[in-house]
């Protein structure tokens, strides 16, 4: 069965600094990978997704993620963080052609001015 | 992508009672799901809502506690039955339009059981 590990529970970065949120997955075949963001009291918003093709995926709000099969990773990056990026970020995996999403534990991002 | 309306957005309920959460999608979707997010936790899938048949429940979740309906391709309900304080969570509805569209989520129902 697939699983997702987000090793960082909390991350604090300064506004304007770069950001990388780590995600490692466990799945034997081709995974479908997602990053979602959840602001306090809100639902989940899809930032980006990877199914196949170019391993560097561009998303909304200036985010990108890189799929590295050799490392079973799908890390999320942003070159310059804004205060409004403070939220909780979830990495998720779905089996190829599968139905359900399996989520990581989430990483809470704090942005300091 | 689809837009999901979920209601109520929040509720405070007495233990022993039941609450039904509604999820309306603005377009027909192939798959609908219900998730639970306990305080400070990640999302856990409760069940897949199947149109015209019984829902498919994940391990640890049972139909008697979380009955689900899906009468058509745009609507589903989740009932939390015989509630206890441990059921206090955010419940989220999700829809998948097709593999390449990703999974869309409603804004969630914040349930507090007292």
Description of the structure:
The complex is a heterodimer of chains A (113) and B (114). Chain A is mainly beta and 113 residues long. Chain A has one domain: Immunoglobulins (Immunoglobulin-like, Sandwich), CATH 2.60.40.10. Chain A is 0% helix and 54% strand. In chain A, strands 2, 5, 6, 10, 11 and 12 form a 6-stranded mixed β-sheet that branches. In chain A, strands 3-9-8-7 form a 4-stranded antiparallel β-sheet, with no helix packed on it. Chain A has a two-stranded antiparallel ribbon with strand order 1-4. Chain A is globular. Chain A starts with a strand and ends with a strand. The model of chain A has no long low-confidence stretch (mean pLDDT 92). The model of chain B has no long low-confidence stretch (mean pLDDT 94). Chain B is an all-beta fold and 114 residues long. Chain B has strands at 4-7, 10-13, 19-25, 31-37, 43-49, 56-57, 68-69, 75-80, 89-96, 103-105, 109-113. Chain B is globular, with a radius of gyration of 13 Å. In chain B, strands 2, 4, 5, 6, 9, 10 and 11 form a 7-stranded mixed β-sheet that branches. A 4-stranded antiparallel β-sheet of chain B has the order 1-3-8-7, with no helix packed on it. Chain B is built from no helices and 11 strands. Chain B has one domain (4-97): Sandwich (Immunoglobulin-like). The chains are: A mainly beta (113), B mainly beta (114). The interface between A and B is medium-sized, with 23 and 25 residues.
